[in-house]
Structures are given as C-alpha cells and as structure tokens.
Amino acid sequence: MANSCDDLPDECWEHIFNRFDHHSHLESLSLSSKKFLTIINGLRTHFTILNPTIFIHGNLSKLFHRFTHIKSIDVSSFRGNLDRVILEIAKSDLKVETLNVSKNNRLPLEGLKVLGSNMKSLRVLNCANLSKFCDIELFTIANSMLWLEELDISYPRNNLGSGFEMRRLNVAELGVTNCGIELLSLKLRDLRKINISGNPFLTNHSLVALSTNCVFLKEIEFLHCPFITHFGIEFVVRNSPNLCSVSVDGIQIPSPMYMNGIDFTFARGLSSVDIHESVISDELLHSLAKAGIPLRRFTLAYCSNFTFFGILSILSTYQSLEYLAFIDVGFLTDKHMSDLCRYLCTLITIKLKLCPKLTDSTFFTLAKNCPFLKDIDMERANLGGGDGTADIVKNSRIMSLNLAYNSNLSDECLRKLASICPNVELLDVSSCLGITEKGVAEFLKGDSKIRHLHINDCRGIKNIGTGFELPKLEVLRAARSGIDDEGLAIIGNRCCRLLNFDLEGCGGVTKVGLKEISTNCKILREINLNGCVNLSTVFVDWMVFSKPSLRKLAPPRLSLITESQRELFLRHGCLVCDGYSSKRYVQE
Amino acid sequence: MSSSLEKNMLILRSSDGEEFIVPEVVAVMSKAIKNMVEDECASNTIPVPNVDANILAMVIEFCKKHDESEAEAASDLKTFDSEFVNRGQEALYDLITAANFRDVKELLDALCQNVAEMIKGKSVHHIRIQFLGYQLFEILTSNFIWNIWCDRDFD
What we know:
By secondary structure, chain A is α/β, with parallel strands linked by helices. The longest helix of chain A has 10 residues, at 34-43.
C-alpha cells in the first residue's frame, strides 16, 4: 500500500515537524506537497530579515501573509531601508511579540510610532548597540509602546564628535539621560526586564526611578555605567520586591561609606547575581551568603580583592546552584575546586575561564561529583598540566565542552576526556596548539554524538581520522587549521550530514579536496573559503551552480567577484558574502 | 470479569475486540486513560477505539518498559526506544496516531523524533516517494510548480 500524508492527522505532522532544530530542514518538505506547506507555514514563529530577503521578495507583505504565526522578527543584520521594513511590519496583521532592531544605524521614529499604535502585542524590544540612541528615541518608545515588558537599550554607539561639536549639543542629544529613563519608568509600568548597560550618563537616579515606578521589575543589568554606585544597587535590591536577577560592575568595596557591603536580605526573590569588574571583599560575599536568597546563578568575572573563603561561604550556603561562572579568578587551584565540589551537586553549567591554575584534575573532579552537569567551559585554563592521577568516572550527561586556548592540552589528555564524556555534542578545542587529529578522533569514534566541532587555529590537525560515518556532525569550524585535501576527502567520506563548514585561511585546500566535499556532503548550507589562497575564483561559480543546497558562501577573495555576479549567485539561491569572522565570538 | 482481577489492573479493549489486562500504573501513562480513571468512568473494560490489537500490544509493551525502568539507567531506555521505533512506515504511522489519540507523551516524542530523523536531509523527490506515496514516473513526468524562492532563507 502506498503511503500518503493523509495517513497521519495534521496534528501528528506538526509534532514531527516541530522536532527539527532548524527551519532549513523544512525546506524540501514544504516544496513537496501543499498540505505540508500549509502545516509548515503555520509552524514558523521566527523570521530573520536580511538584505537578500528584500532583494528576492520585493516586499515583506507576501511573506507575512504566508507565515501568519510569526511571533518574533529579527532585523539586526539588515542593512537597508529600515523605515520601510518597520512600517511593513506595523501594517501587517501579525501578532509580533519580539522585535530585534539591534546593531542598526538609527531608529525610524515615525515607523516606531505606527508600530506602537498598531502592534499591541509587542512585548520585547531589543535596541542594543544602535549607532545613535538618545533621549528622543527613548521618548518615542516610552510614548508609543506602553505594553513593553522587556527592553534592551545597552551599548549605543553614539558618536560624541569633537569637543567643539559637543559643546553645541545638550546632553540629551548625546545619549540617554536620567530624564529619559525616568519618563520611561513612568510610562512602561509593565516593564519586567531592562538592560541599560553602556549608557555613560546614567546615575543612581535612573535606578531609583526604575525601581520605584516599575513594580514588576524582575531583571536589571547595568554594566559600564560609571556613575552608578552601590547606593543605586542597594536601592534597587531593597525596593524591587520582584527582583530576581541583577548584573552589576564597578563596585568599589570597601569604600568609606559602605564598609559592610550591600545588604541583600531584602531581595527575597533574587536568584541570579552577576558581579563584573569590581573590587569586592570577602565581607560582600559573606553578606550575600547571609542574605538567605534563593540563589541559582552566580557569576564573578574580572573581580579582585577577595579570597577563597569568600567563595567558600557563598557556595557552602547556596548548595542548589545551577549556574556558576568564575572568570579570571587567578588564585583558584585544583585543591580549591575539589574542596568546593561537594557543594555543587545540582550544578548544570560551570564556566571556569581564565583560571590558569586549574588543570585536568579539576575536570575529573567536576565530572565525578556533579551528576547533573551538562556544560563545562574551561577556556584558557591549564588542561593537560595536571599530574593525571585523579580517578576517572564516566559522566554521560555532559554535552558541551569548551576547552579553547588550552595550550598544554595533549592528545593523551583528550583521550581521557573522551572516555569520561561519551555523549558530548559540542566540542571546542580551538587554539589548542598541542593537539593533533589523534586526540580529536577519540571523540569521533564509534557511536559519536558530536554535532558541533570547533578546531579553529589548530595547525596540528590535518584531518579528523578515519572511521565510521558521523551522521550527527553538522557544524565543523576549522578556520586556519591544518586541514588539506587529504583531510577534506576523509571529512567528505565521514560527514554526510554536514551543514556548515568553515575553512577560512586553510592554505592547503584546493579544488580537488573541495570537490569531495561538494559530492559527499549532500545538504551543505554554508561554507567559508575566505583566504584559501590556493583556490581560484572560478571555483566559486562551479560550487554555486553544482550545489543547490548551498545558501551562503564566503569566496577566497570577495573583491574579485563583481556585484552582478553576486546578484546572479543570489538568484541561484546562494548568498556570496564576506567571510564571517570565525574568530571567537563573545559568548555569554 | 473485573471482579476476578486484582484491584489495580485494568482491561483495555482494542478496536477489533481483543482484550488486554494491564496494570493501572502502565495504563495511566496515557493521559486520556488517566483522565477516564480519575473521573471514575473506567470501572469496567476501557474501550480503545481506532487502535487495533496489534498496535495496542506495541503501545503497552512500550509503556511497560518505561514504567519498569524508571529507576534504571537512562541509556538503557534510550537503546530500547531506538529499537522500538525502528519499524516500517505503516506501523510507525499507526503508532503515532494511537499515541496522539491516547496522549502518550513519551511514545509520541520518540516516534516523531524518529520520523523527523528519517526526513532530515532528504530531497523533495525522495520525500514525495517515501512519505507522500508518489510513484517515480509521476515525478518524472509531471510539471510541478517550483516555488523555490519562498523557502530560501539565508539565516
């Protein structure tokens, strides 16, 4: 009997289609039948608008008619007429809840007003990192989008110009001021989450206004605001009954006025505390420990003037932490970590970046003592520098390992790590100069679960070792690694489901190897060949026309490709663009 | 008949009339049956329409295993799941329909994941033949309208 899609009710197909982690998997499905197309159109909730989107579709209303359930729109990478896009969104019948306009130049104020009056469903607005964001923009948002619950206005790139120009402007034209925040706090009564980091003119006054007027405030982040002091922090902590997450930096304790640190006792719901770039003291950590708050997430990054005993008092008090990050805590040793481990039974994520005294024995202790651990980040630590005597216990829950910049990491050490974590899905060993393909191959043996493999800057890695197929591997980032044609042949043979391949700056790559990849990796979507000096530009033509699955390609030298060629490629479905930087992006 | 049963057993009757005696803890893994038991309309035999004996037996097997091995290692269960869902397409469809209708979440998740894995990376032709029942000659001879652009996203 022939199968047909009517054998299953729509509801079941929806269940199935919802299991895909990326909408690219739905592409051929929605082309294969009308019924599937209808189901899939209804499932799409997020949409990213890029320049090619406009180039190909002309306008957006067609798309908005098609995907009627879009809840979230991202225009952060769009470089074009933002005004028109915002107006089209405002005039659509969608019920958009999340809009991301970050990283753009400046906001179209008229468009925002229309958006505010038409789209009453909007709850989350991200305006981070705009090249101009001052009080006037903030006023427009405050006056037209009264229902906002989350707002991000962090790190505007307001150009202050020369001193002469600056003198002619008042402060409201240079950036966001207290006045703007006060108006915002009076208008947006439902505000739950706000990020005001990187707005240098804001003072404690802003925090007082936000904390007094927005009673539902749950999360607040104010890094890099030099005029905000612990008075402001203490006020927020005392006055916002719903506060559950706070991120601060630049605290100077002890200061003459606040010898005792900050009293956290009033923050009954505070579950997440991030302290960055501060001079703190053990007293502050002790007072946090004494406060009896339901702490789940704790971060100490780039802080100084505290000792192991401060950390110990926090961790021994709050034994149900799920997320712990110590960044640049230079004094932490393996011994310290093995003392702390007994308090970390519920931990899911741990980040121990820039802690140069921590070796593999810390890793072994964590794997042994934290049964729920999923995510270990030990970037720039000293893995491979331990004596390797600790007992090794398998931990099948660990899924993500970031071990980048561990220059002492060896193949032998990787072998041990692979035997501890059989279910790793993401492995990042970028810039570990001491490892070769033998070490990485340990993670790719047998029934490997690896989906993301990052080996950027590993010159010692020439291939990924021979073995069985790796149907799970989807992303392989091997920029500036030692991969050559021989390596590509092996990768082509083993990684049939590869989606995203980064080969930036791999001098050993020629068209011989890439043909292997092109034939064997049937569903490859993105490839970066930026700076592959032994590839001719003609090869780009061949690649685009012979691989219909390809959506994004960074050519060896973009300057050699004309605008009309790029348009032609785009009409073939492939965006030929700049090599996206595969240098390590800033991760949370 | 129910009087002769132990207290915490239930009888499920498939669409073709076959009866299965199942411990209550196993049967209530189906939300639909759980609701019936809670509303006390399950004093006697519970009819399971739309699901034939063959499929019902499989569903019960799955639920039993999941009930037993709650304490067991998760990896064992995973191997069982992957073997369990490894069936022909027709049986899979019937199982999915049954799991959806009776609201057995674990089973539905495992089955849908399996079908999704089957679809992943397949071409349009492949999907049409395997999942939509097209014959090869239909694909080769007909003029499908290719609305390619609609689905070309670059993110």
